[in-house]
Design goal:
This protein has about 240 residues and is of the alpha/beta class. The chain has helices spanning about 65-75, 135-150, 170-180, 185-195, 220-245, and strands at about 5-10, 20-25, 35-40, 45-50, 80-90, 100, 105, 150-155, 155-160, 180-185, 200-210. It has a single domain (about 5-245), classed as Nucleoside phosphorylase domain (Rossmann fold, 3-Layer(aba) Sandwich), CATH 3.40.50.1580. Bound molecules: hypoxanthine.
Length: about 240
Amino acid sequence: MAILGIIGGSGLTRLKALQIDRQEMVTTPYGEPSAPLTFGHFDGSPIVFLPRHGGAHTIPPHRVNYRANLWALREAGVERVIGMAAVGGITPAMQPGVLCVTDQVIDYTWGRDHTLFEADLDSVTHIDFTEPYCESLRQTLLDAARRAGVSVVDGGTYAATQGPRLESSAEIRRLERDGCDLVGMTGMPETALARELGLCYACLALSVNWAAGKSEGPITMAEIEHHLESGMAEARKVLAAVACG
Ligand code: HPA
């Protein structure tokens, strides 16, 4: 069984049920990942965990070293990666509290180091990205959620925005016209870099607020934190079921 890597997002800087064997800071040709890699296991199944925003949640989305993170996981022997993501819900099915295994992504980010294929090339390389997520890992996540008794939405288009600010309501209306269901700040270039590295990558997204303009008034941190806490408890059950399945 391929080693499972988990990239934790906001609200998931640790996996409580993970039995930790060791932590290791690694360096990569692209610099250091967000934190030391945590090697551990769930019920005997090996896991490598990496908090995307650093152990103390101090690295904003546009400053995450996505290349180093994915490279470090692959060097650690990881073949399958689940990226956890806290997102805003745009379409009606994505109300706060909903978990979604996304199936498409649109990249609205800019100025990020978004590829490994830009220097020292033997030839120009273009990866196929028609289906940006690894279908077998998506199915594994859906299956694990069923076994864990956690309801998840199968499929949704993730809009990756630059951040760290939240969007204007007009921006959200545009994303909706583009066909996006969810909006977050870290899905790209993470998803594409995983593909460039040949990793099987899927995203488990947790809606923690209605996106801008989709509810009355401004988006509050209190709302986000409330949904993060309860939703991540459900997400942890899914992750444990993936690891143990
Ligand atoms: N927009 C972008 N990223 C997010 C949001 C949002 O509304 N909520 C959580 N991450």
